[in-house]
Each structure stands twice: as structure tokens, then as C-alpha cells.
Amino acid sequence: MLGRRNTGVPEAIETLIGKNVKIEGKLISEGSVRIDGQVEGHVQCQGDLIVGASARIAASVKAKSVSVSGEILGNVTAGRVELASTARVVGDIDCSELAIETGALFTGKTQMRKEASKVEVTPSIGNTIVPAVESGQNNPDNAFKRSGA
């Protein structure tokens, strides 16, 4: 969309929600989805989600990647999020990559994270899982050493 990064061949659109369609509830797909209509509730795609310019989504959104030209009122979680100049997002974005074109409107907080494939997880005592510390970089004990204090 933004022409900044070539991620290879895009996944084929498996599901198309047309401009005159309104869905209330959960939309769950194992493939890629394009929405040009209205969705209220929850959207989850294992593939890519394309939100067309005419789309109005009032839902929490989770997908491999999200490309927005329309409107999302809700939180977005994805590996990569792209907001076109016509996009309007009101909600928090949790992603590892974020691209915003001039003119896009975004109201909310952004949480940038490492890609899941780059973060090792090791079990700890009990049933909890904690991220492994990579070569001391993320070790809180080293924070003062890095800052020169």
C-alpha cells in the first residue's frame, strides 16, 4: 500500500465483505479478508486484513497485517499496520511495524513490540511463561550501566 516495503507476494483475498453488507458479531477467517462494508463486534484473520475506503468497523481487530483506508473504531493488533491517507482509527494499536501516511487520522495509544518469531520464551516456575533476556540487553539490572549512571 505505502510502497515502503516489499513483503513478497500478497495473500489472495479469500473473503470479501461488500460495500452494502453489514455484519454484527464475530468474523473469523483463516485466510485474508477485505472489508468494504460495515462490521460490528470482533474481527480475527490469520491472514491479511484490508479495510477499504468505504469500510466502517466498530470492532476489535486481530490479523497478521492490517491495511486501513476506511474507519476502525476499536483496538488493532497485528504484526504490521498501515494507515492510508484516508484512514481513521480511534483505538489502540499493538504491532511490530507501523506506517502512517500524511492525512491519516489516528487517536489512541501505540504499543510497538518485537516480532514474535524473534522473542524466545522459556517456562518459569508454575504455569506462567516469561520472555527470555537476550544477551543482557533487556535485563533491568543493566539499565543504569547503559544510561551512564
List the helices and strands and how they pair.
Elements: E1 13-17, E2 22-29, E3 32-35, E4 38-45, E5 48-51, E6 56-68, E7 71-73, E8 76-83, E9 88-90, E10 93-95, E11 97-100, E12 105-107, E13 110-112, E14 121-123, E15 129-131, H1 143-147
Parallel strand pairs: 1-3, 2-4, 3-5, 4-6, 5-6, 6-7, 6-8, 7-9, 8-10, 8-11, 9-12, 10-13
Antiparallel strand pairs: 14-15
Distance between the termini: 44 Å
Tell me the number of structural domains: 2
Which residues form runs of ≥5 with pLDDT under 50?
116-149
With helices defined by DSSP (H or I, 4 residues minimum), what is the helix count?
Answer: 1
How much helix is in the residues? Answer: under 10%
Round the Cα radius of gyration to an integer and report it.
18 Å
Structural class: mainly beta
Mean pLDDT: 79
Could you state the order of secondary-structure elements as H and E? EEEEEEEEEEEEEEEH
Shape: globular
What does the largest sheet look like?
A: 13 strands, parallel
Number of strands: 15
Portion in beta strands: over 45%
Tell me what you see in this structure.
With 149 residues, the chain is mainly β. It has one helix and 15 strands; from the N terminus they run E-E-E-E-E-E-E-E-E-E-E-E-E-E-E-H. The chain has two domains: 13-114, no CATH class; 117-147, no CATH class. It is 3% helix and 50% strand. Strands 1, 2, 3, 4, 5, 6, 7, 8, 9, 10, 11, 12 and 13 form a 13-stranded parallel sheet that branches. The protein has a two-stranded antiparallel sheet with strand order 14-15. Strand 14 and strand 15 (129-131) form a beta hairpin. The radius of gyration is 18 Å and the shape is globular.
